[in-house]
Task: structure prediction
Amino acid sequence: MASIIEERPGGPGRGAYPAEKPTPRESSESLRARIPGWGADLDPADRPSFPREQPGIETGAHWTTPEDQPETYPRERSIEHAFLTPVFGTAQPPKGVSGVIRRYSYARHSEAKFAHWALLILADRVDSIESQFTSILQLRPDNPITETGILSEVRRHGLSSRYGRNRTDVKHLWLDPILIGGPYILAGWAVLRVVRGKRRRR
Amino acid sequence: MRAMVYRGPYKIRVEEKDRPKIEHPNDAIVKVTRAAICGSDLHLYHGVMTDLRVGHTFGHEFIGIVDEVGSSVQNLKVGDKVMVPFNIYCGTCFFCARGLFSNCHNVNANATAVGGIYGYSHTTGGYDGGQAEYVRVPFADVGPSIIPDDIDDEDALMLTDACSTGYFGAQLADIHEGDTVVVFGAGPVGLYAAKSSWLMGAGRVIVIDHLDYRLEKARTFAHAETYNFVEYDDIVMLMKKLTDNLGADRAIDAVGAEADGNLFMHITGVKLKLQGGSPIALNWAIDSVRKGGTISVMGAYGPVPNAVKYGDALNKGLTIRGNQAPVKRQWPRLMEHIRNGYLKPSDIITHRIPLDEIAEGYHMFSSKLDDCIKTVVVPPSAA
Ligand SMILES: NC(=O)c1ccc[n+]([C@@H]2O[C@H](COP(=O)([O-])OP(=O)(O)OC[C@H]3O[C@@H](n4cnc5c(N)ncnc54)[C@H](O)[C@@H]3O)[C@@H](O)[C@H]2O)c1
Ligand SMILES: [Zn+2]
Ligand SMILES: [Zn+2]
Result:
């Protein structure tokens, strides 16, 4: 690539940035010849997302405001909304302890609060523990082998896909078992300490 | 019906689930013929998305056959073969009325900062998605379109998200003739964004990733110049050297929250979730563009704060733009480009798997095994 930065008489390491845009490596004509469709959307004013806001855009809607979907259970909603939206998802209504946390988080905090999101993440973790238990009761326990898809390590060449291929994620793969297993080991250790402490006191 | 369901971080299985019902007069039920797994689904799979409930069915890229329609549906009938944009939107709220389809205010009860998305947690509305045999499609007269006879099913499938998003991302970058564009991420979104940059007249398109097989695709599919960031101590320095020390005119972040390449950011953002994902690719973009340049952010981030180098962005006078793509606005033009032979979206599909093997499909895509770029999922009733 031809650089536009020239060495100046002042000596090595001296220079000044000029006003011109750096010379393109390839002309528009040559790009058009080489790359299918080059410049088909050249005019910035003639692109589908310009202008960003297009009042009156055709949407297919034939109503002024949508009808209300019936609310068949008390639907949790962001307190930043003035009312329950006319349409909403009804998948997985809140239930159990996780449901209580979720409902509390929606009722109490706006989306601006970190606590809102922290509670929702907490509820997600509680939900997966609750569901583990119910799935055992329903005689459909979670199967870590099939559900993690770990067998694809064999079928989809886990080793040769990862090693000797310049990938950066391989460098911190060792961290995963620690981060995933770590909390369980810590919790186990804490339980053990408590149990032992009690025995000693007896 | 058979449907993929979430069981907890890194765990999914296929279960029998009730077929969805019409819940609103403008709903349709669509029988899914093809679905795809998106990079965004990985934020769910890794448990990074908030209010993600056990039992949730993912999938926001799908096409199918209309199986049932609500009483007010006029534009579709049973039997129509449709493509469904990943956005759920009403068509008439303040935002929809202005074309901001991805920012609809009438469909997401759970949050106001994001619109409605199929199968993408309760934070985007609590709708089950299309990695299943059937799916509820709200506002059937607004979102879906009948797939034209001359458009291949798999091309239509790619237009429901990834391809439209890459194309939209290139538009947000405000590319002018001769501009140097650097795209971070050579996943589906990055590949389409790189390809689209040429359509908009870029003079040079550079793609950065650490997966050589994807960079290879960036060279063949998107005619891009590529660099593996692992081979360079400082990728920003490299960008400066390649651009006469000014920086690239435009950058596109097609990586998002799961970014790799900086251990501290990766651990705090991706593993410990102390940030809304790792912002390393965005920070590289901020430092790689020239002053006065533009950054288009297509990569998705969580709702809690990120350690973004905003000071540099301010001092450099950058324009930073982002959004969930308003997918349907891109379709007429993209179909023209497909018909003209400028673009073949399905060229990036690497795997086609039955719905019942989807747990392995997720692990493969998440761990980037078997040179996987885009995986298409086939429900049993459509096989
Ligand atoms: N805005 C939208 O409407 C929209 C729509 C679809 C997807 N997305 C988002 O776009 C992003 C990409 O989606 P995808 O389907 O292409 O995902 P993907 O996971 O297939 O691709 C991401 C790529 O980024 C690479 N990468 C990781 N760290 C990097 C770094 N520091 N620099 C450069 N590359 C890096 C990965 O190796 C991978 O190839 C995701 O965050 C997804 O959520 C946004
Ligand atoms: Zn997506
Ligand atoms: Zn709307």
Remarks:
- DSSP finds eleven helices and 17 strands in chain B.
- The first helix of chain B runs from residue 39 to 45.
- The mean pLDDT of chain B is 97.
